[in-house]
Automatic annotation (TrEMBL):
<protein>
    <submittedName>
        <fullName>DUF169 domain-containing protein</fullName>
    </submittedName>
</protein>
<dbReference type="InterPro" id="IPR003748">
    <property type="entry name" value="DUF169"/>
</dbReference>
<dbReference type="Pfam" id="PF02596">
    <property type="entry name" value="DUF169"/>
</dbReference>
Amino acid sequence: MSDTAPTEAQRLVTEVNALLRLKTTIAAMQMFETVEEMEAIPRIRRPKAKHTTDQIVSMASRLGWTVGITQADLVGAQCGAVIGLAPRDEEFLRGERYVNVWHGTQEDAAARQQALSCVPFGRYQAMAVSPLESGRLPAPAICLVYATPGQMIILINGLQYRNYRKFEWSVVGETACADSWGRALATGQPSLSLPCFAERRYGGVPDEEMLMALSPADLRVAVEGMKALAKNGLRYPIPPYGIQNDPSAGMGASYAGKR
């Protein structure tokens, strides 16, 4: 048995899993200004075929791999633009390839393309994902937490336990990764998404999972909040009280002495 003390990332993952009983590995994502920086990551894998970003993320969250990519590894500009590896140029913004696929008119497709939250193009040349607890990424920008709605609301409650803020998230539809890692990378804010058709078909995201992208610091805030909630009896799994029972006793336990 190793005597090495766990890292903060390992402690964070252990605590999240104890609080939420997640099925899917928490992944970390980091952008790199040079390909050489990305390729220097320990045990990095490089794709041998084209993929979507959804697939690359799932290699970390579902297979436990550490994977690095450039735009050349992605199947098209749509994936790359969201993480700042491809430009949001005129062709991208027109969205003509989505007409009569996801949208009825070119105007609708263009409106969706304009609505996507994307990392600005020009700074980064590569991206890598890895299980957060592995510690292989030197400075991950965001963590990716896949969870059921019941798990997710407890995570959100944890974020709101202190320094309350109202979260208002968007739903762009297809290319929902712009709602999660695109928005979180671009703004630094916790970002919730309903994974889209492509994430579920190509990335293997199950029907029941939602996705929260947030910084490691915000994940720590959520953990401390969830610990406090658990002491108050508000924890996951949320036990059904019974739809025909008088809730007074249950609510009395939570709000005893309150008016």
